[in-house]
Amino acid sequence: MANSAGLSTLQPELWRKQLMTDARDLLFINRFMGTSQQSMIQELTDLNVAKGNKINFGLGMKLSGDGVTGDSEMEGNEEKMTEYEEDITIDQIRNAVRLTGKMDEKKTIYDMRMRAKDSLADWMAEYIERDMFYKLCGNTAGTFANTPTAAAATRSVFAGGQSAVGSLTTAMKMDTKVLDKAKQTAILASPRIKPLRINGKEHYVAILHPYDATNLRQDPVWNQAQREANVRGEENPIFSGALGVYNGIIVHEHEYVYRTDDGDSSAYVARNILCGQQAGVIAWGQKVNWVEEYKDYKNKFSVCCGAIFGTLKPMFNSLDYGVITMFTASDAASTA
User: Fold this and answer.
1) Of 12, 64, 73, 315, whose CA is between 20 and 30 Å from 325?
2) Thinking of the domain 11-35+47-58+83-145+282-314, which architecture would CATH place it in?
C-alpha cells in the first residue's frame, strides 16, 4: 500500500494567498478601492507582471466642449479628451518572525505558525493603511516609495473662518459648517473634485480623526440631519461603518488621520479629508507574499512577509486632484 504525502512545497503558496486575503480584509480603505478612475482609491496592478518601479497613469478630466446642435456637422467637430498624467513609484517593505524552536512550540498550546501569520497580516495591513493616510493627509514624514505633499491653500478649509493653520485655537472644532465649506470648495475647484457616483447619486467621503468625529457628533445640526435625513438600508460597502451622511457627504473616522500641534499656542490640529474620485492611488508590484525558512538544522521556524507597492495622492498643476483638507482643532473628549 502506498501512502500519499501532502505536497509541502504548496503550503507556503497557500499561506501566501491567505495572508494577502487577510491583510486585504483588514484594510479600512478596502471599501474605497477599485480599478477605475471613478474609484476613490484607484488600484493599479500593471507592475504585477511587468518590469519597472514606476507607473504612469491618467487623471480623467470632464469634457468641456459645447457640442453641436440641430443638423450641424458632428464629423470633424469631435472633442479631444483631455488627460493629464501622474507617476507613482513602488518599493518593497518586509517584516519577519522567527520562532524560538521546536521545544518552545511543543510547550505552547496555540498554533504558533497561525499566530505568526495573523501577526504579520495585522502588521502589513496597518503599514499599508498608515502609508495611504500619510499621503492623503499630507504628512510629509511618511516618505515610503513616494513623498507626500501638504495641501495647497486652495484645497484647504480652516475651522473658525480662519485661513492658516497657525491661527486655529482649541475652540475651532469640526462641525457641519466645515463639511459644508469643504464640499463647496470641492465643487467649485478647478478642475472640480469629482464626487463618487453611488447608486446613481453623487457623494463625497469625509474621513475624520476620532477626536474630530466626537466633536462633530456634538453639533446639533449634525444630529438633526441624522435623525431626519440619514441614509438607511444602504448596502454599498462605502457606507459600511460610516458615522452618517450629511449634505451628500458620507462621514467615516480613522485613527490614522494626521494631527499635530501646529495651531495657535501649540493647539493640536487635524488634517481631516474630504475625498472624491482618484483621491488616492495604490500601485502593486507584488502583492503580499509569504516565505518560510528553517534555521538551526530545521529547529527554528521563521516566516517573512512582504509586498512591493506604493501609494500616492495625485496632483494636478501642483494641486491635490481629489482631496480637500479640513483643518480643525483636535483634542480628546472631555467628561467635564
Assistant:
1) 64
2) 2-Layer Sandwich (3.30)
Question: Model pTM?
Answer: 0.85
Q: Which CATH class is domain 153-279+319-329?
A: alpha beta
The yes-or-no answer to whether 11-35+47-58+83-145+282-314 and 153-279+319-329 have a common fold is no
Going by their DSSP bridges, the two strands 269-275 and 201-208 should be labelled as antiparallel
pLDDT per residue as tens, the chain (336 positions): 444 334 444 455 565 556 556 666 788 999 999 999 899 999 998 776 667 788 887 776 666 667 777 878 878 877 676 567 788 999 999 998 887 667 666 655 457 677 777 888 889 899 999 999 999 999 988 889 999 999 988 999 999 999 999 999 999 999 999 999 999 999 999 888 999 998 889 999 999 999 999 999 999 999 999 887 666 667 778 888 899 999 999 999 999 999 999 999 999 999 999 999 999 999 999 888 878 788 877 888 788 889 999 999 998 888 899 999 999 999 998 877
128 Cβ contact list (under 8 Å, min separation 6): 23, 27, 29, 282, 307, 309, 311
What the block records as the C-alpha cell of 208 is 475624520
